[in-house]
Amino acid sequence: MKSNWTLVFAAMLLACFPSQLFGGQPTDIDNDGRSELIVVRIVGGQMYWYITPVDNDTSRMPAHYNDAVLAGRNAVWVAWGRSGDQPLLADVSGDGLPEFIVYRPSEGNWYILWSGWNGSLVVHFPGTGLPQAVQFDDDGKADLAFIDILNQRGTYRSSKDGTINSSPFDYNYGIGNRVYIDLRVVSRFTYPMVSGEWGAITEPYMYNHGKGTKLFRQFSGTVGVVGENYPAVPLFGDFIGGPKIETGNFIGGRWQLWSQGDWELLQTEYFGIAGDIPINGDFDGDGKIDKALWRQETVGIDSTYYIKFSSPNSASQAVSWGWAPHAGGFSCKWGFNSDTVMGRFEY
Question: What pTM was estimated for this model as a whole?
Fold first, then answer.
């Protein structure tokens, strides 16, 4: 099986990740170096963004945000967007903080609320496929984009000059020398890899080769027995600490991480259950991605965050922050099952 995995992961992220990708998470709203817990909810046709810091302290939040106490936690909320809009978080201004973005398919407009709360911007840029906001042109700002699976192309609007550019998917398993953008899975299904084994295919991924973005199809997932037919969510980031970025997957509650280059299996850990949504975030500010999940509970309407903090200091303080010990990690209620959670790996 090692040769199979070499093929599987050779197609993954053999690249040097820049500091801006992992130095500040896309869900760090208050600029303290830690990710926030964020859900988006539709109420009466209006879209609301509900945000709570991991330490339950909202004093660092911008003064313009609305204060609230939800699910027993201190929070802030922002009204931005409406029913039918597609929410995104990305740094389109280049200030290191994410903007609130919604794409409105009925109009072909993107509505951007600046992170500094100094106004907003409407961009008319209609397209086909999944709307994304990722960096294509190496200027430190996310570009508005569409990933069109049907036509196997990605189209983006340059933040530099507003020009529209298109790039086809690359099926040659090319290896880039740098990665600038946050990678997002836009389609996933399960299929048999070899007799008696299962994996998952994800398509497409985006990466920059030098200064030109390529989009390509690649394999991911983990091998299991027949019947272990859970969707695999690819993972990427510095989970362990050190000079390399790990790649791996979450499947059915199991986390597996491989080192880049030699593809040594570094870690297998069980945390969570099938159906949980892994969240990309550094919730304790130690520069490492934490094992974090958002679960739409089967009883009641409330959802739950589950986190294993990588920092022992944060773990020792979690209870005072309103987190309850759970299965070697901590949990807290945040969001409704009908909400959209932000920061997910595959979104």
Answer: 0.79
